[in-house]
Design a protein that fits this description.
- With 297 residues, the protein is α/β, with parallel strands linked by helices.
- It contains 9 helices and 13 strands.
- The strands form 3 sheets. The protein has a 6-stranded parallel β-sheet, sandwiched between helices. The chain has a 5-stranded parallel β-sheet with strand order 3-2-1-5-4.
């Protein structure tokens, strides 16, 4: 373990999917450094977005909120240095690393590690098992909505995640931050699985335009559109993880639900888009090797 005078904080940010990517990376780093890591909830307590709240909180044993002016000043300076490709420096006892961590830690310094850490190298079976266990514990299996939908899911059911709501509204200086998947991606990937499925469940934050993504269906194909108002985020996440056939969006929410699905259903089919980020669009290091990458986006 590291010296008690050395404090390493992992700053959590974003919704459930991002939090799980950050948690997985923290466990990877914790294992390498043989250290205790604390979780900083500053962004989650500050965010006004409904989906950016701490979920599966029992995963994070040591939590705190670092919001003093010294840490904020250090972050501003270190973020500029990061953008200019300079090394971070200690300011007022705090030092920030973005998507990285130092090889050597010094005493009496607060190290804050920040980023989304979207890399498959951080995934491990043990950590995925831990996440799966906590998910099962936190879901209310007696909830009538969960009971009803679980009964409808079988081996010939398909889960499709369509995320557009906040992807459309998230802007920086009027510039959209996320890449929006086309209707063609969904139409073609669903069409390719039509012979394998009878029921299609679409989990979405854009119910109005969802029907546009469906290819021509036969009489035996039923479609169930499940919107944000029907289920809480954790409930939708849990249900997606039960499907044998899943088409994910370029979203860590459905990505992690599919990873959990792969954990207990080895022979399932998960299809992901070949374009993920708006910046570095074809960087697919986030996608596990056992997912099928579609040519469409």
């Amino acid at each position: 373990m590291t010296d008690n005078n050395i404090k390493i904080y992992f700053r959590l940010d974003g919704g459930l999917g991002n939090q799980l990517s950050e948690y997985t990376a923290s466990r990877y780093i914790e294992n390498i450094l043989k250290c205790d890591i604390y979780y900083d909830l500053y962004y989650l307590t500050k965010s006004k977005k409904k989906h950016e709240k701490l979920l599966l909180g029992n995963l994070y044993k040591n939590t705190t909120v670092i919001s003093c002016w010294r840490s904020r000043t250090s972050r501003v300076v270190n973020r500029i240095l990061y953008k200019l490709h300079f090394k971070p420096i200690v300011i007022f006892g705090f030092i920030f690393y973005f998507e990285s961590y130092p090889e050597v830690f010094k005493k009496n310094i607060n190290y804050i590690l920040e980023g989304f850490w979207q890399r498959k190298k951080y995934y491990s079976e043990n950590v995925i098992a831990t996440i799966n266990n906590e998910l099962t514990k936190e879901i209310d299996l007696k909830n009538p909505k969960i009971i009803r939908l679980k009964k409808e899911i079988n081996e010939r059911s398909l889960a499709v995640h369509v995320r557009r709501g906040d992807f459309i509204t998230n802007r920086n200086y009027f510039i959209r931050q996320q890449f929006i998947l086309s209707n063609k991606y969904y139409m073609n990937t669903i069409f390719n699985l039509l012979d394998e499925v009878d029921k299609i469940f679409i989990f979405t934050d854009d119910e109005i335009n969802t029907k546009d993504i469906l290819p021509p269906l036969t009489a035996r194909h039923s479609v169930n559109v499940i919107g944000k108002k029907e289920l809480e985020d954790l409930e939708a996440f849990y249900l997606i993880s039960l499907f044998k056939n899943i088409i994910i969006a370029n979203s860590t929410f459905s990505l992690w639900a599919a990873i959990i699905s792969k954990f207990h259903l080895n022979d399932n089919v998960v299809i992901a888009p070949c374009r993920w980020h708006k910046k570095n669009p074809f960087d697919l290091e986030i996608i596990p090797n056992n997912f099928i990458i579609s040519k469409e986006f």
